[in-house]
Task: structure prediction
Amino acid sequence: MTPSFTVADIRKTFLDFFASKGHTVVASSPLVPGNDPTLMFTNSGMVQFKDVFLGTDKRPYVRAASVQACLRAGGK
Result:
């Protein structure tokens, strides 16, 4: 019999793996970012780190793992 996994099981296994490798598990950002007028929606998992990439913030960790909901729309 094939074991069945829920979405929550897969998410936990994913995060536990990266935590075991020294990553800090961080909470996901909201789908609609409230503090960034340049974005209508969270379109990638990197949105929550935008201020770090721009050099305006530092985090107490160098490796992070999260499971981020995002919205992508076609039509480029």
Q: What stands out?
A: Residues 42 and 68 are 9 Å apart (CA to CA). The chain has a mean pLDDT of 91. Helices lie at 7-20, 50-53.
